[in-house]
Design goal:
- Helix 3 runs antiparallel to helix 8 and helix 3 packs across helix 10.
- The chain has a domain of 167 residues: MetI-like (MetI-like fold, Orthogonal Bundle), CATH 1.10.3720.
- It has eleven helices and no strands.
- The protein is mostly helical.
- 26% of the residues are buried.
Length: 275
């Protein structure tokens, strides 16, 4: 009696089966390539040995990284963006956290309306917000400048802080606070030693989000900045005559700093889960 082996599947069938098994990996790879091409371009051209224009590759150099302030006004604009970002983040995080606790923990008249109004700045186009704020400042005879940018950034950052912190508050287990109260902790001690540490990751995430939104905002800033130059505004103005390579250096550095923060956050989170 002779054994007959199963027929080999056709090449078309094997190819189809391979694609069905690896389609998600292929899609993920293409998505990551699409997302990171601008970052790779910015990083590569930060090493371009060029003069005023940085549109054509002229050769490799480390001079741009050794002297990131070599282009006129680039570091001044970055310093303005950092100062505005820090001030806006601090104010928006404090106010947004208090609003989030009020909405998330207390019932009061107009709570639903307040909850709805918080989302309006997020849903409104930036060009509308920027033009409205500029009209308001001019009607109040306030010249656009550094502090008008800070006020504008605090306004749109508060909504994101409230949404982020409120989601964290909603996920808290009320039994933890009840247990602290059962152990004779008063309301202030319960908030200080139980509630606030549990909400702190959400507050930190909201602060990072607010700083990121403030640092890279262009439309609202352009309406309300006057003669003050921020880093996005500097890049936009420089685009007409060629963005200097130092701007690529600073953009790449900001990306890697953000990447390090994310990695450190993930490592710390995993360490805490193991404890």
């Amino acid at each position: 009696m002779t054994m007959t082996s199963a027929p080999m599947p056709s090449l078309r069938h094997r190819t189809s089966r391979w694609f069905s098994r690896n389609l998600i990996r292929i899609y993920a790879g293409l998505a990551f390539i699409y997302l990171f091409i601008p970052v790779a371009y910015t990083f590569a051209f930060s090493f371009n040995n060029t003069g005023k224009s940085n549109l054509v590759w002229q050769g490799f150099t480390l001079d741009n990284w050794k002297n990131p302030c070599g282009a006129p006004q680039v570091c001044e604009s970055v310093a303005n963006s950092l100062k505005i970002g820090v001030l806006s983040t601090v104010v928006a995080t404090i106010l947004g956290t208090m609003i989030a606790f009020a909405i998330g923990r207390h019932k009061f008249k107009g709570r639903t309306t307040t909850n709805l109004l918080i989302f309006l700045p997020m849903a409104t186009p930036e060009v509308v917000l920027g033009a409205s704020l500029l009209a308001m400042f001019l009607n109040l005879r306030i010249n656009p400048g550094f502090w008008t940018i800070v006020i504008a950034h605090v306004m749109f950052c508060i909504s994101f802080v409230v949404v982020t912190v409120k989601a964290r508050i909603a996920s808290l287990d009320p039994k933890l606070e009840q247990a602290a109260m059962d152990l004779y902790a008063n309301e202030r001690e319960t908030f200080r030693y139980v509630t606030l540490p549990l909400v702190m990751p959400g507050i930190a995430g909201a602060a990072l989000l607010a700083f990121s939104l403030s640092f890279d905002d262009f439309i609202i800033t352009n309406f309300n900045s006057g003669v003050v130059s921020t880093f996005p505004k500097f890049v936009y103005v420089s685009a007409a005559r060629g963005i200097p390579a130092q701007a690529n250096v600073i953009g790449s550095a900001m990306f890697f700093i953000a990447l390090i923060i994310v990695i450190v956050g993930q490592v710390v989170s995993r360490q805490r889960k193991k404890v």
